[in-house]
Amino acid sequence: MKSNNILQEAKQAIEQAQSQSVLEELRVKYLGRKGIVAEFFAQLTKLKGDERARQGQELNALKHEITRALEQRENAMQTLALEKLAEAEALDVTLPGARLPYGHLHITTQAIEEISRIFAQLGFQRMRYPEIDWDYYAFESLNMPKGHPARDEWETFFIAGSQQTLTRPNGHPLPEREGRVRAAEHPKLGRMVLTPHTSNGQVREMERRRPPIRMINIAKCYRRQSDVTHAPMFHQFEGLLIDRNVSVTHLKGTLDYFARAYYGKDRRTRLRPFHFRFTEPSFEIDISCGICGGTGEIHGERCKVCKSGWHELGGAGMVHPNVLKAGGIDPKEYSGFACGWGIERMLMMKLKLSDIRAFYIADLNFLEQF
Amino acid sequence: MNLMVSYNWLREYLPGLKASPEEVAQKLSLHAFSVERWWRTDEGLENIVIGKIVKIEKHPNADKLRVVMVEVGDVPLFATKKGNVPIVCGGTNLFEGQLVAVALPGAKVRWHGEGEQVEMKITEIRGVKSEGMICAANEIGLEALTLHPLPRGEGEGGGKREILDLTWTKAKPGTPLAKALGLDDTVMEIEITTNRPDAMGMIGLAREVGAILGVKFQIPSTKFQTNPKSQIQKSLEVKVEVPKLCPRYMAVVMEGVKVGPSPWWLKRRLIASGVRPINNIVDITNYVLLEWGQPCHAFDAAKLQHTNNTRNGDEQTRTEIVVRMGKKGEKILALDGNTYDLDENILVIADANPSSSAKQHYGAGRPVAIAGIMGGEETGVHADTMRIVYEIANFDPVTVRRGEHQLGLSSDSSARFNKGLPTQLPEFAAARLAELTKQVAGGEVVQVVDRKPSLGLRPSSPLGRGQGEGNKVKVSPQDISRMIGVEIPATQMKKYLTGLGFKVAGSANKWSVTFPYWREIEAGGLADIAEEVARMYGYHNLPSVLPAGAPPDEPPNIQFAQERMIKEILRGAGLTELYTYSFISADEILRAGLKVENAVALQNPLSSEITHMRPWLGISMLLSIKKNEEAGKMLKFFELSSEYHPRMGELPEERQKLIVSCAGREERDGQHFFGLKGIAEHLAYVLGLSDFSFEKIAKSEKTPWASRYHPGRVLLCKAGRDILGVVGELHPSLLKAYGIEQRVAFLEWEAKVLLPLIGSGRVYRAPLSYPPVKRDIAFVAPKTVEYATLVAAIQQIDPLLHKVELFDLYEGKGVPEGSRSVAFHLSYVSPERTLTAQEAERVHEKLVKMLKDKFGAKIRN
């Protein structure tokens, strides 16, 4: 029988094969449908009995041996190829990635999101109230009596009552003087104003639900001012908590929690006396300086960033009893605190920006940084 | 209001004050008012001392120089010289025995008042040793001493190039200059809150510091000294026509004053407080303002118009002061040199009309001052004034504030009046004015007028505990503690309150607390008292406690999370978020083809750019695109903000809208449109909008967007039957109106419709149990056959057709003119069994036939 010779010959050829294609050719030559081994199998039909069985076994063994040789050679070749992979298939991996387009969320959106998230952890719910509201919610109910400076026309925008008088028949606006009109007015709630602060939400929230109240309101506010540090439109954050036995210490706790979460775990806040109409007592909130740690000194020299150890963050206070009463809440039973600050000012401090107007002039170069 | 406060001046009312200026500043900030900064007034005067000229000799080598021996006392550095040092000096006004400012080595000077500061060193000048420098005022930053001349005997010869003569200081040689001039002081800049006009003066502030630091506070007592021998008849009459706006008017007439420069001590304090010295009388009014917080004004009595009456045969001269509203047409030349138009909204002080008779003169004279804001130039005090009328009054805060704004004029006086001052103050200020005038400018008080037309309160002692009604509060110490959040002993609370001038009466848990007169404007309830106690205790001393109690039981407001999700999706798609002003100008509204009268108008616009609330967010978007057009980039913006629409008798509707925009040079026609259509599909997919679809807008349709969008390039976006808005290119005429040259596309959706639909289309199906059979089909069809028509026809061919997906679209070479080649991936699947190739083939053949028959398609291979 030649099977031994065939095996020798096949093995030799396989050993010498240098590529996949040669190996494939050899596989077809020996093991293919019309290959050498198949031919031998075809001839088996001519044999009979034991001889057929014996040769059949022998052929199966041959087939097995060749298959094994092919596998071994293939494995060996693969190992060899893998060793040379780095050179053989090198890419210039320093070329830039096929990146997705960069989008940008406005820095104000990002700040609003972060503040909301921190206060949500303390159970404060974000709410939205009208940006254009009645005097009652913006001033009167907040203990700001008639004659208070904020209610003057040079501080706050009012909404015109009769639109027609503002324009000429051709639709062009009248010059300012000529076009002076009365503000839109509600018989009970007073004039219509562009809210100069987010505090119009206070009494609205008290009317919406009974205590406990834990609300935050972040919204656009408007004031008649425009310079480097004042924009006619800006955003304010405001937090309101009303419950039984709420004291100044709880305001401190809440602010310290915010300071740690937003600015870093070593930061803390400090309250200083101030004055607002709708809170009593009222405070200014300082946050400890991140550079000198609130000491105002670095190696015996005055901290150049804060000069005093603290940065002013915003205002706060205990909700004035008159405001609680306006919201239908008995100040003998409940007390609360409110705190708030300008989002842009907070960001300007963080980003070291000097002109607030950069936020809203839609300058692509500015926006693409965020 | 920011106040500049001299530490040394403050200490005059707090003799026991030991705390350093830094300590005072820190405590004030924590317990009362924010001290924004502080600085020493002797900064730069180190190593400059008073020297006495002992001998003057000619310089051997220079004609214009002298060699001066100066006694500089026991300066350690010069101990061996027995206190005398030689100095080469070019000054012309030197004399032996003169006291001068000597800059010793180490001092910082500015040669001839020019250039950078240099440090003094021992030098040789033309061969003669010079161990210091005799200074002119501008060489050591003391121009104030020469710019505002001092009275005779104090610093004569303060010429610019001349040596500063300090003989008047009578200081011992060697005394540091700063000390000799009273400049060894610290000035603090303090922000006084608007509710505390009582602290807008040294006395009020000292009272506060005394209470905080536990230091006894005292006011030097002053009393009126009128000269009983004065023969001059009482000739001034004060009439208050508007008692509600002028609750009190005091006038003090002084005779025989001598107007001139103020002494250095007075000047020094004004300068430290940021007030420019003028002359002694004006300076005194400013001094009393700074000390008591009560504005005062001085008229030259001779310049006030008067009436001449004959009574009992005697000619009588009568001067009048009338407090009344201004009149249209009246003008006044104010002390700032500007002329102001007055009207019936402005409260004025007027004098008499000399030509009218006594009975009809009221209101006829001319305005001589804008009440509470500024005096008039014509009746002001000048060098030759001898008889003065001091005005010490109280004016309505709102009237003063509105006057300030109407005239665009404010002053240190109006800044205090507009906060509301106690009506008790004038009498203290008047006495102090008279006393200081006598001391500094001479003269006698000849008449005091005190009009209290609308004053219910009577002041009591000079320390002035108010006696009026409505200034008492009933509180309990327990309530105070509860509000603050810590237990503070009642005795401690009482101490805090009495220190601030409050009176505490009543039993252990039922207090009646009386506000002092200077705090009456604040009188309220428990919270006011708690505030005083808490700030004295120190807010910074309170513990930090997280609020206890359950949070409100209410499901969260998901709207904010939804808005955030939309923004995140768009950011991920490469868009940049904008925030723009909610207001715009009327011109912009017209430009957008909208009606101005349908927009919410501001009653008091800030400028011609800020007159209306925007009725369409697209206007802001177009302006932003125009602004960035020149950058030459692809502009992909979005904004989720409100539009404002008026409603009758209600607050305007604040309608939140999402606008996504695509602008910039297109690489192929329709790029912006399809870019945004893709964004629309992406949003619909990620937000899970149910039955999202596009619909063509009929040309005849009168929707709000019909005129804004390109009629051939716009689609309605719908979810089921709800109309979200549109996606489309903007109308060329609108773009032209905005001067935008490239095409611009918007996606414009209503948040009110969109938000509730988020997640509505998320229906989950079981995974397919049987494998799909996949086929592709490519064919050429006329371009007039729209894609949507093709897809609809294909999808209807058989229920087994599961998915149709466009993968190629081609027109051009090889495809006949007017046709295009379209190719789809198709997927056939049965929910019940594994499809055989033959079954799929049958459907596919049906499809091919339909395409040929219906659209004349030619199948490609």
Secondary structure blueprint with pairings:
The complex is a heterodimer of chains A (370) and B (861).
Chain A: H1 3-16, H2 20-31, H3 36-44, H4 49-83, H5 85-88, H6 107-120, E1 125-127, E2 132-134, H7 135-138, E3 185-186, E4 190-194, H8 200-208, E5 213-222, E6 233-243, H9 248-263, E7 269-276, E8 279-288, E9 297-298, E10 301-302, E11 310-319, H10 321-326, E12 335-342, H11 343-351, H12 364-367
Parallel strand pairs in A: 1-5
Antiparallel strand pairs in A: 2-4, 3-4, 5-6, 6-12, 7-8, 8-11, 9-10, 11-12
Helix pairs in contact in A: 1-4, 2-4, 3-4, 6-9
Chain B: E1 2-6, H1 7-11, H2 21-31, E2 34-40, E3 48-58, E4 66-71, E5 84-89, E6 99-103, E7 108-109, E8 118-119, E9 123-125, E10 128-130, E11 133-134, H3 144-147, H4 177-180, E12 186-191, H5 202-213, E13 236-240, E14 248-255, H6 264-272, H7 280-292, E15 297-300, E16 306-311, E17 314-325, E18 331-333, E19 339-341, E20 347-350, E21 367-370, E22 374-375, E23 387-394, H8 397-407, H9 412-417, H10 425-441, E24 444-451, E25 472-475, H11 477-484, H12 490-499, E26 503-507, E27 510-514, H13 526-537, H14 559-572, E28 576-577, E29 583-584, H15 586-591, E30 612-613, H16 617-628, E31 635-645, E32 653-663, H17 671-687, E33 692-696, E34 709-719, E35 722-730, H18 732-737, E36 744-750, H19 751-757, E37 773-782, H20 787-795, E38 801-810, E39 819-828, H21 837-855, E40 858-860
Helix pairs in contact in B: 2-5, 6-7, 7-10, 11-13, 12-13, 14-17
